[in-house]
């Protein structure tokens, strides 16, 4: 039990502009679950990507079973018995489950014996009680099932060291429980598991030991039995985790957003939102909780006019046209999308251009379309940069060189600082941000609420919802399954709803 | 009389379709690995020139074919280096290959215009060649046409049935997944880009050594571009590529048949048909739904880097 | 050993970009030298022939300007689309369609219009309209049906070329052409004012004016600003309220119109009659020019002129040294490759890593 199977010493990894791992030490013993805990951007995934040969460390040693090794590629890692389930699954969508498991196996020969692989998958799924359909195509199955395929892949090659990167982000509480059972089953069979997470409760439930990373450095390593949530949180953030967020009671005014019987399709042409109705009043924050992939993306895009829908969306008394963004902008709707790099920012353009992306669509701006000098935007941009404390060397810097927090501030400065929104749709607004930026985002949103804006907050993190919302609705499989109150005493109730258990007495 | 025309049209379709088939098959492999090579026209021209000149100088047809194939692969390796290692824009790199092929073949080929060289002639296959009508059309052709017949099922089997084929498809569709399973994405892409070049070189050689045995500047006349379009027409499937290539070959020879039976459509209007037809096909083959269903290489044209995900 | 790329943290400066472009031209010249050597010719004499006429003599200089004109039009045509990352390589077809439409107007629609002040603008509109149509079709197919614009523009090039061939070999063959496939000559009122006998004509000045217009368009208008956004990230374009689909079509139409105008100018200013193969692939060279000019309209003027010099020079080369003029294509290919490589060096730091 005390034999060390993996040992990382003094790992350093730099990326342009940041040190992701700064002299990190980490070790894993046979049969244990060792959790790697830290905020977003603390360097957890980077460290494990080094162990799996995806990244190359700038310096530092890796030992497997006491032997110093050079893991230059995933192939090498697999040879050393290391397996990893990344946040973005490594599956080929058009392949069947069996083909995906077979992919890259050494024993295949010229013509792969797929029936043999299939049989072994069935055998493994029985042994570990993991339900998968070996003949299904990946693009047809749910995210939870895809994760089970990834686990089967590790079991198939008898990985002794398994790295799971934020495995619960896409799971319901029930599925998470199932995953934990599988993990326990695996450690019983002498496998060791590294469990990457930023969720304290989970880490305490599943792990034997916990190592906390902050800003690329190890803060400390503790036995799970000898610690508690408070201590861990302090280690993670570096100070007492009391955010200076003042949530005043809601002084709700009239209805700003009214959604009635909304139906939206996803990219695959399947129903993602199935008849959702709700409303948000001015000066109110409605939090929409739910496990990711239950229609959040489709809901937010439809509301902002980037996706067609059936049903009615009314903003401040005006009925919106389906799939028409201009309509939203004209009616002072601000949108903070979930993937800011892909959906809200032009990485190759300067900060000032990004701040004025809506120069010709926002009703609060009047520019001459036939003679427009973009350079004149520099001055007002400087003011916005100051107001939103965007730290960058100049307004001309390309946005792709900014940190995640500063990128989000650019989005907020444009959507909120540049106009006075009546409705703000914010999706995972603090994802990937550190605590400081997180606090900033919360305060900006609450300030707008105080000014009377209606805010629709779609988030996966329940504590984010608790911090900001006045009411909570839970989205499950494209429907609002119930409402609840945003405080910890309702945590269990909300958790059950997130898993699809209906609330008996909806508010 | 009419029967002769039908026979000659159909056999002409096979002959005209063969270079299209080779180039399309090669490009299917390259694109399946995720590399878009628009330079087929340039590689084919260099193949045609090399094949002809080697045949002229040595008189050895097989040496000529081998040289042409090799030169196609060499040009493709330039594209591979640019697009896989340097990760430049694949569209522009492919275009550069076309310029290079046109320029070099025109420059070096200048002295070969009007010359005569060894060329392939038809070989009748015993028994099969005696089947009425069919035998005459299908089994009384030159050996390169036969190679085309064989290449299709071989590549089909390779793509869908073998481990290497599975790896290839994974690399083109989801390089991250392939990499995470220890498949060498860069090497795979290099290999199939170069193999694609081999096929283009062969296609060029067919034109200058069998189809119209001579050397004329720019003699591929846009066939490389048609092959690029045929890949989409075939939704990256070798069997559909066969159908497409011969159909397009048919359209291009139809003009001669129409002239003989005096269908009053001018040659130049007939010449437009393959191109118009390609556009027409793309209208249907381009929808995302179609692409998803048939396993289009979704990483096509996207360079892969392990550490940098943009 | 393994090559390792690291993204540079800063945007390269203008000077660095200029130096890199210069270096790629140099590299291309060196490689070209080896190719010329391969046939036993002296590269230095060849280079001298290539540039001395165009840059060293007045008639050569004017000829270079005349050759620059179609290149400049088509380069500006593709440039606008490239700004939006639309790979429009249909300038060739748009150019040919512009020439077709101008010929149609000049010889068949209103051949007896005597007033050049009316005639020439009319032909310009016709040429632009035909080019615009040839841009509109792939634009619509791309925006609304997702058809790859590289292939559709390319296929339409061939359609346009065969269309011109059909007309010149068939119904439009001129009465006095001695059975050559050329149309009759344009009426004099349909011809651009000529200055001197060297071929200098109004079209050249129009092409430069268009370059400044495109400069204004991309730099100082709403369209240009939105082009930058949609060109960087199409989804953000949508997010900002830009009708991205309509913009794709618009951009293709504007680009097509400019190339079409080029075809018209080639007819009214230089050739005065339509004939097959009247373009030695201007529309394809345009792609290189736009790329070399890094999509800057003013730089495009200079680069186009440089290519005009090369084109004129390559004819000299063929005439005096019997070196095939397709050499220029090889040069273009090599140049494009070295440019692409330099692009990478500008944005990445390359290191050799020992494994």
Could you explain how this protein is built, in words?
The complex is a heterotrimer of chains A (507), B (310) and C (355). Chain A has two domains: 4-237, P-loop containing nucleotide triphosphate hydrolases (Rossmann fold, 3-Layer(aba) Sandwich), CATH 3.40.50.300; 255-498, Rossmann fold, CATH 3.40.50. Helices cover 31% and strands 25% of the residues of chain A. Chain A has helices at residues 44-51, 74-79, 97-102, 114-127, 143-156, 173-188, 200-206, 229-237, 296-304, 325-330, 340-343, 351-355, 378-387, 404-417, 435-450, 462-468, 491-498; strands at residues 4-15, 18-29, 33-38, 59-64, 67-69, 82-85, 161-165, 192-197, 209-214, 217-223, 255-265, 271-281, 285-289, 309-315, 318-319, 333-336, 423-427, 454-458, 471-476, 479-484. In chain A, strands 6-7-8-3-9-10 form a six-stranded mixed beta sheet, sandwiched between helices. A six-stranded mixed beta sheet of chain A has the order 16-17-18-13-19-20, with helices on both faces. In chain A, α14 runs parallel beside α15 (435-450). In chain A, 48% of the residues are buried. Chain B has helices at residues 2-32, 40-58, 61-85, 90-109, 134-138, 143-161, 163-173, 175-180, 185-211, 223-233, 238-260, 267-285, 288-293; strands spanning 123-124, 140-141. Chain B is globular, with a radius of gyration of 19 Å. Chain B has a single domain, classed as ABC transporter involved in vitamin B12 uptake, BtuC (Orthogonal Bundle). Chain C has 355 residues and is mainly alpha-helical. Helices cover 72% and strands 3% of the residues of chain C. Chain C has 13 helices and two strands. In chain C, strands 1-2 form a two-stranded antiparallel ribbon. The radius of gyration of chain C is 21 Å and the shape is globular. Chains in contact: A-B, A-C, B-C. The interface between B and C is large, with 49 and 48 residues.
Give the tags:
heterotrimer; A: 507 residues; alpha/beta; Rossmann fold; 6-stranded mixed β-sheet; 17 helices; globular; C: 355 residues; mainly alpha; ABC transporter involved in vitamin B12 uptake, BtuC; two-stranded antiparallel sheet; 2 strands
């Amino acid at each position: 039990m005390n034999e060390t199977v993996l040992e990382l010493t003094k790992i350093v990894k730099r990326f342009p502009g940041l040190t992701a791992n700064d002299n990190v030490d980490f070790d894993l013993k046979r049969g244990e679950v060792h959790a790697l805990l830290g905020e977003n951007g603390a360097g957890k995934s980077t460290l494990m990507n080094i162990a799996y040969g995806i990244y190359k460390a700038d310096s530092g040693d890796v030992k497997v079973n006491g032997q110093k090794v050079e893991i230059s590629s995933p192939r090498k890692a697999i040879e050393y018995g290391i397996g990893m389930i990344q946040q973005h699954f490594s599956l080929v969508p058009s392949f069947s489950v069996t083909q995906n498991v077979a992919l890259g196996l050494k024993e295949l020969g010229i013509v792969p014996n797929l029936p043999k692989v299939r049989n072994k998958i069935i055998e493994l799924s029985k042994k570990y009680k993991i339900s998968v359909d070996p003949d299904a195509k990946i693009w047809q199955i749910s995210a939870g099932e895809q994760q089970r395929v990834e686990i089967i892949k590790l079991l198939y090659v008898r990985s002794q060291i398994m790295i799971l990167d934020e495995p619960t982000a896409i799971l319901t509480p029930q599925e998470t429980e199932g995953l934990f059972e599988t993990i326990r089953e695996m450690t019983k069979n002498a496998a060791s598991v590294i469990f990457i997470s930023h969720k304290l409760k989970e880490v305490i439930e599943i792990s034997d030991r916990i190592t906390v990373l902050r800003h690329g450095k190890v803060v400390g390593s503790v036995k799970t039995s000898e610690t508690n949530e408070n201590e861990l949180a302090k280690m993670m953030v570096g100070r007492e985790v009391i955010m200076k967020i003042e949530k005043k009671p809601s002084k709700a005014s009239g209805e700003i957003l009214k959604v009635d019987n909304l139906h939206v399709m996803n990219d695959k042409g399947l129903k993602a939102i199935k008849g959702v109705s709700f409303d948000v009043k001015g000066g109110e924050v409605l939090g929409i909780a739910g496990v990711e992939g239950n229609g959040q993306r489709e809901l937010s895009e439809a509301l902002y006019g980037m996706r067609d829908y059936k049903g009615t969306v009314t903003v401040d008394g005006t009925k919106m046209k389906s799939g028409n963004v201009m309509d939203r902008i004209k009616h002072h709707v601000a949108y903070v999308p979930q993937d800011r790099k892909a959906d809200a920012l032009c990485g190759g353009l300067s900060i000032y251009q990004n701040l004025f992306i809506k120069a010709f669509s926002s009703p609060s701006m009047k520019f001459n379309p036939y003679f427009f000098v973009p350079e004149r935007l520099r001055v007002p941009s400087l003011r916005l940069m100051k107001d939103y404390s965007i730290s960058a060397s100049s307004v001309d810097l390309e946005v792709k060189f900014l940190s995640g927090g500063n990128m989000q501030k650019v989005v907020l400065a444009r959507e909120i600082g540049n106009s006075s929104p009546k409705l703000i749709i914010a999706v995972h607004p603090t994802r990937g941000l550190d605590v400081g930026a997180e606090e900033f985002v919360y305060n900006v949103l609450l300030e707008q609420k105080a000014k009377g804006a209606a805010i629709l907050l779609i988030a996966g993190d329940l504590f984010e919802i608790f911090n900001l919302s006045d009411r909570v609705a839970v989205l499950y499989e494209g429907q609002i399954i119930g409402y609840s109150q945003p405080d910890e005493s309702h945590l269990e109730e909300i958790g059950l709803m997130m898993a699809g258990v209906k609330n008996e007495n909806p508010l | 009389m009419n029967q002769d025309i039908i026979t000659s049209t159909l056999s002409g379709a096979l002959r005209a379709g063969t270079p299209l088939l080779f180039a399309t098959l090669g490009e299917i492999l390259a694109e399946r690995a995720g590399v878009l090579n628009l330079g087929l026209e340039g590689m084919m021209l260099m193949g045609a020139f090399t094949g002809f000149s080697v045949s002229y100088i040595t008189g050895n047809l097989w040496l000529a074919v081998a040289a042409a194939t090799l030169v196609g692969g060499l040009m493709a390796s330039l594209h591979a280096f640019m697009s896989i290692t340097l990760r430049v824009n694949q569209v522009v790199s492919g275009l550069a290959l076309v310029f290079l092929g046109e320029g070099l073949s025109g420059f070096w080929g200048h002295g070969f215009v009007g010359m005569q060289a060894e060329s392939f002639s038809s070989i009748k296959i015993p028994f099969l060649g005696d089947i009425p009508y069919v035998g005459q059309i299908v089994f009384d052709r030159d050996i390169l046409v036969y190679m085309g017949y064989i290449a299709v099922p071989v590549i089909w089997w390779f793509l869908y049935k073998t481990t290497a084929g599975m790896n290839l498809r994974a690399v083109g569709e989801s390089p991250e997944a392939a990499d995470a399973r220890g498949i060498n994405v860069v090497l795979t892409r290099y290999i199939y880009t170069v193999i694609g070049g081999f096929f283009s070189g062969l296609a060029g050689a067919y034109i200058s050594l069998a189809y119209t045995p001579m050397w004329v500047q720019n003699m591929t006349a846009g066939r490389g571009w048609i092959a690029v379009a045929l890949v989409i027409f075939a939704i990256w499937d070798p069997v559909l590529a066969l159908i497409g290539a011969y159909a397009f070959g048919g359209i291009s020879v139809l003009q001669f048949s129409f002239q003989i039976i005096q269908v009053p459509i001018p040659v130049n209007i007939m010449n437009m048909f393959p191109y118009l037809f390609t556009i027409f096909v793309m209208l249907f083959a381009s929808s995302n739904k179609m692409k998803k269903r048939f396993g289009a290489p979704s990483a096509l044209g996207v360079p892969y880097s392990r550490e940098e995900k943009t | 050993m393994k090559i390792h790329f690291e993204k540079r943290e800063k945007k390269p400066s203008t000077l660095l970009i200029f130096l890199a472009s210069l270096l790629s031209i140099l590299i291309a010249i060196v490689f070209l030298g080896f190719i010329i050597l391969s046939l036993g010719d002296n590269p230095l004499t060849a280079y001298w022939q290539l540039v001395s006429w165009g840059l060293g003599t007045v008639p050569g200089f004017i000829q270079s300007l005349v050759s620059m004109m179609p290149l400049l039009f088509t380069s500006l045509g593709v440039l606008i689309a490239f700004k939006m990352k639309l790979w429009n390589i249909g300038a060739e077809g748009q150019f040919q369609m512009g020439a077709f439409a101008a010929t149609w107007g000049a010889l068949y629609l209103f051949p007896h219009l005597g007033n050049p002040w009316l005639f020439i603008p009319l032909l310009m509109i016709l040429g632009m309209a035909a080019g615009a149509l040839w841009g509109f079709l792939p634009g619509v197919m791309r925006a609304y049906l997702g058809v790859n614009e590289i292939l559709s523009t390319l296929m339409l090039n061939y359609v346009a070329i065969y269309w011109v061939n059909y007309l010149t070999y068939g119904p439009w063959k001129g009465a006095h052409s001695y059975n050559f496939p050329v149309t009759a000559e344009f009426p004099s009122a349909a011809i651009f004012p000529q200055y001197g006998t060297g071929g200098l004509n109004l079209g050249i000045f129009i092409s430069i004016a268009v370059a400044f217009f495109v400069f204004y368009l991309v730099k100082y208008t709403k369209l240009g600003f939105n082009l930058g956004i949609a060109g960087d990230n199409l989804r953000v374009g949508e997010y900002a309220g830009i009708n991205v689909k309509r913009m794709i079509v618009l951009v293709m139409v504007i680009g097509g119109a400019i190339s079409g105008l080029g075809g018209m100018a080639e007819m009214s200013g230089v050739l005065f009659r339509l004939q097959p193969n009247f373009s030695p692939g201007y529309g394809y060279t345009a792609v290189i020019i736009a790329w070399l000019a890094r999509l800057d309209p003013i730089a495009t003027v200079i680069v186009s002129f440089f290519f005009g010099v090369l084109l004129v020079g390559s004819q000299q080369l063929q005439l005096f040294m019997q070196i095939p003029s397709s050499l220029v294509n090889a040069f273009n290919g090599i140049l494009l490759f070295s440019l692409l490589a330099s692009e990478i060096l500008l944005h990445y730091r390359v290191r050799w890593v020992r494994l």
